[in-house]
Amino acid sequence: MKKTNLLKTIRQTGFTLLELLVVMVIIGLLAGYVGPKYFAQIGKSETKTAKAQIEALSRALDTYRLDVGHYPSSEQGLAALNRNPDNEAKWQGPYLAKGVPADPWGRQYQYRYPGEHGDYDVWSLGSDGVSGGQDADSDVGNW
Length: 143
What we know:
Elements: H1 3-12, H2 17-68, E1 110-112, E2 121-124, E3 140-141
Antiparallel strand pairs: 1-2, 2-3
């Protein structure tokens, strides 16, 4: 093969600038479409995790009430599920194997007894950490 034929072959194997730009635009369009849908799913999974943890806390609180005869006071809080508050004679805990978890956003769950929505209220303030909100920022509770 002659040297000039070899140079022509080498030049023809690369991509043109236009081809690279078209590929980059297609990748950008795909990322713009898929990215928001992907990140919306992450927010939904955190909310589902909070709901599951609140259900587990509710079961532990109900077991506590069956043993002791009443729910922990708001002052005792959820900590009463893992250590005997005020030396309750009928306390048979701990009622949670690994302690009270933090919510998916790294904050403590809120607890109130008596509750406004039921016997007691257990809730998370959502991703924004402020009462109220919408979507991922909304509160997640046992009501």
